Amino acid sequence: MAAAAIDYSVTAVLSNADESQDLFSSVLGELAWFAAGFAVVQTLIFFRILPQMNFPLLSIESRSEGRALQRKCAVKDLCAAASAGQHAEVLEAWDHEKSQGPLPLDALKDSAHALALLAPKRLASDLAAHLARFPAAHTQAAAATTLTALLEVAAEVGGRDFADELASALKFHLGTKPAVADGAALRGHVGAVKDHLKNGDLHAATSRLAAMREAEIEPPARAMAEFFEIAVGLGADAVGHLLNGMDVLFVLPPEAMAVVLSDCLARADVVLARRADALARDQGTQLGFSMYEALLKIYATASDARAMKLFEDMQNRGFFASEGLCGNLLSRCGDAGNLDFAECIVAYLRGRSGMTLPMFKTLMRVYARCGEFDLACDLYERVLEAGLEPDDVMHGCLIRFAVKCGRPQLAEQLCGRGGGGNAHASGHGNGLAAAVVLTRRHGR
Fold first, then answer.
1. Residue 219: half-sphere exposure toward Cβ, Cα within 13 Å
2. What pLDDT does 444 receive?
3. Lower CB count within 10 Å: N or C terminus of the chain?
4. Angle at 194 between CA 188 and CA 197, to 5 degrees
């Protein structure tokens, strides 16, 4: 029996060893297949059969972009909750986001409103702690605008006495006390400025604004925007005069800057747009999407090199350029012969797989307007590589451009592929085909 037991033990050990070896071989086989699959995918990417793929979990930069996007969504949710009157949700979002980074002014005002309603004893300490934690987010001038806006919120919720208490508390926490204007005095000043502007008396309007500054009374953001809306009706000179007068008195809020830039876009006033852009940067005014959009369109039309830096800044702020905006900017680049900015927009679209057939057609027109017919013809292969097929209009244009830049073989190839059944396009293609034959005969 002892011998039998020994034989059984030896058999069991050998069996376990075989099973372990089989398991080990299976794992090695799986790893080998995974490595082979990875190598195949990388080979296909190298030969551009598959698009380039990013692996967010392995990229620190991608993780940072993801956190920035989450932060932007959280701020949007906070503002949406405030618009819906969900003050408890706003307060909960504030408690989570106040230490994550500086909040934009709109979100800060919404949070202050919720604090004033639900937790008034926390209002001053919470706001002061947030502003002190992120001082780099506010220049001295922009901080004054922020404090004034917060006091307006406090006055709206609890009246002047409550705003005075907040001002004193902020002075204790931050070492500065913003002025709280009497409601009647503020309305009187604002009404007087509007009346002067409506009468076309710009000098009197700026003099009243200077008096407000001396009295440490700052107009609300909405009032400043209304000043410029009235000035727009008076013409470009009035807008410029008011802008030059106010830039040394107050920090222009985004609402007012948006009115100025919208007017600059409507009148294609690149000089005033540059002035407003520089002022916004000097005063630390945060540009909104509508302001970026207006400036980009103005700079693209003027072929201004600032467009590329502004486009990059817009992306860094978390804004995205839609296909419609990119198409509009490309078209403006074509009119202005601005190839550098056009290529910048195309690079942005390629990185997001946004080069659709309409985008290719717009880029083709840009090249053609700039006299770069060779580059326009090169788009044909790029369209095919993207898995797209040129339509009749694009076919006809490419044939014409191929003839102009002396590429008869490409023209014949395009004529051979032909358009998709449009009789006019077909006749146009036949005419161009004849032009190709003549071109070859003359040795071009």
1. 30
2. 45
3. N
4. 140
Alpha carbons within 13 A on the beta-carbon side of 369: 17
What element of type H or E holds 147?
helix 140-174
pLDDT of residue 46: 65
Smallest CA-to-CA distance from 325 within 307, 352, 345 is with 345
Which pair of structure tokens corresponds to residue 386?
């993207």
Pull the structure tokens for residue 137: 């987010």
Threshold 0.85, pTM exceeds = no
Q: What band does 137 get if pLDDT is binned at 50, 70 and 90?
A: low
Residue 209 in contact with residue 246, Cβ under 8 Å?
A: yes
> Cα Rg for the chain, rounded, in angstroms?
32
Kindly report the length of the chain.
444
Q: Confirm if 325 and 358 have CB atoms less than 8 A apart.
A: no
For residue 13, what are the contacts with CB-CB under 8 A and spacing of at least 6? none
According to DSSP, residue 171 is labeled H
Give the whole-angstrom CA distance, residue 398 versus residue 137: 50
Pair 307, 340: CB distance under 8 Å:
no
Average pLDDT, rounded, for the chain = 78
> What are the structure tokens assigned to 41, written together?
């995918």
- CA dihedral angle for residue 184, residue 167, residue 208, residue 142, rounded to 10 degrees: -140
Q: CA-to-CA distance for 303 and 333, rounded, in angstroms?
A: 7
Q: CA 134 from chain center: how many Å? A: 23
Per-residue pLDDT band at 143 (split at 50, 70, 90): low
Task: Give CA separation, 211 vs 122, 152, 199, 403, 419, in Å.
Answer: 34, 20, 19, 69, 70
Side chain identity, residue 255: E
